Amino acid sequence: MPGITGMGTSFDLPNYVGDLFSISPEDTPFLSAIGGLTGGRPAYDKRFEWEFYRLRNADANRQHVEGDDAPTPEERVRTNAHNVVEIHQEAVEVSYTRQALGDRGGYGTTLRGVSPVADEMRWQLDQQLKQIARDVELGFITGTFAEPADNATPRKTRGLLEAIVTNVRDLNGATPTIDDINDLFQIAYQHGGLMEGETRTLLVGPGMKRLLTKLYLRVGLTGGVLLPATRNVGGVNLTTIETDFGTANIMVDRYMPVGTIVAVSLEECAPRILAIPNKGFLFWEPLAKTGARDTSQIYGEIGLEYGNERKHAKLVDAATPFDGIGSGSGTVYGS
Fold first, then answer.
1. Which position has the higher pLDDT, 326 or 212?
2. How many other CB atoms sit within 10 Å of the CB of residue 248?
3. Cβ neighbourhood burial of 55 (10 Å; 0-12, 13-18, 19+)
4. Which residue, of 263, 277, 315, 320, is most buried by count of CB atoms within 10 Å of its CB?
5. Cα(216)–Cα(62) distance, rounded to whole angstroms?
6. What DSSP line would sit under 289-323, residue for residue?
């Protein structure tokens, strides 16, 4: 069922009886893993930055003789990365009549009973929060950076996929192998990533998750037979993989583009939030009164801090036997 725009009335938002279920996915695994909408770090401007430095390469010939003069002074140079917070703003408008009905009256069926929605305004605002979280999840993964010079177009935070430019492997349409996955871990490790066991993560879409299960459990595509653990339980669910560079968690995210795998050092990532004075972040407030209705909005500004992009790695343009299943456009899963 589609949504509506404009004011919600007793005609547009009829009550029904019985349990209320969502038919849309509400999970946001990447956002949740790095802090969620309420666990971010403060941003102090619409553009925020972080910095890092690099030590010189280890040198086997840096020894000195007795009584030697001090070596030529040298200093380490710091560099920075930046991103922007993007504005998420949603509004809800409900007529007085619809609010007065509460959880009774105006039913969309001939049945009588109590609707699980007792407060239409609050329920609609709750759904807007869920939608904002899904928008942020998608943007944190696939967002294209935009920092306009004027207010004609919105700011857009740089997503993780766009941020990774150093450690990139392009399979040019080939099906990935275990060696390809190991290569991905190796190039991230060699640049200082994937060092913390709890946050070492492989981020994949649902089709790629199925392929990984087959690859690592030697079933189907690579031959061999997997014996069940018991006589009454079948099937497998690959949740971690052991690599030469440590154990990695597998995170399945429906907003990952088809054919893409990311090795993520999650400890490098965090939401950055811009608090509005006297309001905070992602706040609800009523809007100006006009007519026999209430209008409210939810507002927040948030961006992705992805740390040192060299500590992540991505594999792109990979093929799997499961591309496009349930994906609609064939480019991203979930709706």
1. 212
2. 21
3. exposed
4. 263
5. 44
6. --SSEEEEEEEEEEEEE---GGG-EEEES---TTT
